[in-house]
């Protein structure tokens, strides 16, 4: 997901795809987190997702989150 898409998709269902962990499902995008990398040379974003049925919070890389009406891998 790109940064401009975050505001449009906040509190809406999105798709999380983590092929390495066999995860491919719908979640609610509840927030976006800005973090500094370990070398303190730059920043990166993470998505805060909420599971629809249980409300469990998941933090994932923004690159692994897709709008439901957008392109998926």
Count of distinct strands = 5
Mean pLDDT: 92
Return Rg in Å.
12 Å
Distance between the termini: 11 Å
Strand order of the largest sheet: 4-3-2-1-5
**Main beta sheet, described?**
5 strands, antiparallel
| Spatial shape | globular
Order of helices and strands: HEEEEE
Short description:
The chain is mainly beta and 73 residues long. Helices cover 10% and strands 51% of the residues. A hairpin with a 4-residue loop joins strand 1 (13-18) and strand 2.
Write the layout of secondary structure elements.
Blueprint: H1 3-9, E1 13-18, E2 23-36, E3 43-51, E4 57-61, E5 65-67
Antiparallel strand pairs: 1-2, 1-5, 2-3, 3-4
List key phrases describing it.
single chain; 73 residues; mainly beta; 5-stranded antiparallel sheet; 1 helix; 10% helix
Notes on the structure:
- With 73 residues, the chain is mostly beta strands.
- The protein has a five-stranded antiparallel β-sheet with strand order 4-3-2-1-5, covered by helices on one side.
- It contains one helix and five strands.
- The longest helix is centred in the N-terminal third of the chain and has 7 residues.
- The N and C termini lie close together (11 Å).
